[in-house]
């Protein structure tokens, strides 16, 4: 029995000496600290990050092109093992020379018929904004539709319109100014998922454990 356990531990150790961990994510910022910790502990594992919206990330997971996926919404699927991450508020952001720069906050009515920089159709950020505006009886006026968070930021910087992003994904950029949407009722959710059939793989289980450790530590410090 002891010999069998020792052999299992040896195999587990070898399993994390080399290999690859691929994550399909909508926004890497939500798991970068955990990725850094994983890389420090297991330098022999090559970590690959594939970015895309939630639908694209989920598709990569289902097609076995990723080991884990980070999604911007809950997905009810018995095939998935899910680890919810902390949620965030929705922010509007504008260029530094915009009339709103310096405001403490805005309300949804401020966005009514305002030129907006919108993400692609599959973006959860866009879907959330559209739902909030629709429920409030307000109009969305697209100034431009762009693919990806970086393109949206650059469109805002040059003054095409107002952008919307989750607080965790705003980052640091002196060219833009962000403010909360105070009457937005929904919060942006992030969920890390893997296929249950893949959850016992050592590399997947180890990364999930690091994420859970981080969540536990954050909850104790809150």
Automatic annotation (TrEMBL):
Keywords, comma-separated and alphabetical: DNA-binding, Transcription, Transcription regulation
Superkingdom: Bacteria
Stored Pfam families: LysR_substrate
InterPro entries in the record: LysR_subst-bd
One biological process term in Gene Ontology: regulation of DNA-templated transcription
Domain LysR substrate-binding: 16-214
Molecular function as annotated in GO: transcription cis-regulatory region binding
PANTHER family (alphabetical): HTH-TYPE TRANSCRIPTIONAL REGULATOR (PTHR30126), LYSR FAMILY TRANSCRIPTIONAL REGULATOR (PTHR30126:SF94)
Record family assignment: Belongs to the LysR transcriptional regulatory family.
Protein name: HTH-type transcriptional activator CmpR
Gene that this polypeptide is encoded by: cmpR_6
């Amino acid at each position: 029995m002891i010999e069998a356990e020792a052999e299992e531990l040896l195999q587990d150790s070898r399993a994390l000496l080399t290999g690859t961990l691929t994550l399909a994510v909508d926004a890497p910022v939500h798991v970068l600290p955990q990725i850094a910790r994983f890389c420090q502990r297991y330098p022999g594992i090559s970590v690959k990050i594939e970015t895309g919206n939630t639908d694209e990330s989920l598709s990569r997971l289902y097609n076995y092109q990723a080991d884990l996926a980070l999604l911007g919404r809950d997905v009810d699927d018995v095939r998935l093992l899910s680890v919810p991450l902390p949620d965030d508020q929705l922010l509007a952001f504008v260029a530094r020379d915009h009339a709103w720069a310096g405001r403490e906050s805005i309300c949804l009515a401020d966005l009514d018929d305002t030129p907006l920089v919108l993400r692609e159709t599959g973006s959860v950020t866009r879907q959330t904004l559209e739902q909030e505006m629709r429920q409030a009886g307000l109009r969305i006026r697209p100034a431009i539709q762009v693919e990806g968070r970086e393109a949206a930021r650059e469109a805002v910087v040059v003054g095409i319109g107002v952008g919307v992003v989750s607080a965790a994904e705003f980052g640091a950029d002196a060219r833009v100014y962000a403010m909360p949407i105070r009457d937005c009722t929904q919060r942006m959710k992030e969920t890390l998922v893997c296929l249950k059939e893949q959850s016992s793989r050592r590399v997947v289980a180890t990364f999930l454990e690091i994420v859970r450790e981080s969540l536990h530590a954050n909850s104790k410090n809150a």
